[in-house]
Specification:
Layout (H helix, E strand, L loop, with lengths): L15 H26 L1 H9 L8 H20 L4 H25 L16 H27 L9 H16 L2
Amino acid sequence: MDITTQTTKPNAQLPRQRVVLEGIIFLCVLLFAYTAFSKLIELPRFLGQIRSAPFIGPYSGTVIWAVPVAELMVALLMTWPRTRLVGLYLFVGMMAAFTAYIIYIIRYASHIPCSCGGVLEAMGWGDHLVFNSLFILIGSGALLLVRQATKKGRHQPPLRWHDIKNLFRKKQGKAENL
């Protein structure tokens, strides 16, 4: 039987690591999906920002499509259990590349508008550096958890809503028994 099609029993105990992993995956998918759609919705603005960016400006016609499409593909890869590990590696790699570019901007550029998309554009470059570094750390933590589970043969399907509800019901029941 394929483990990716197994269902979790409503009364099964959910390990804390699994809940943490699903939360991290959710945040990473949300980040990439949000920034990709923000860039695509405001494509002319994104193009203008990329044209003025060092190194990548001459390739702006390609970059304005490649970056959001890659972000959406990585977000999708992270949602499917069979491709989650690859998606997480790509997520951490892309975040590291974005962070390296931010370090370059901070060090050598006078003023370059942020092309991250959406509300993230309001952050300064230092804030971006911290934000990206945080996502690299949590993405790396998720990679470790997925690799650990894969080695032990515990590759489980993503949590469903009833799994999360039951987790909180159990905690409420324990608190009431005290």
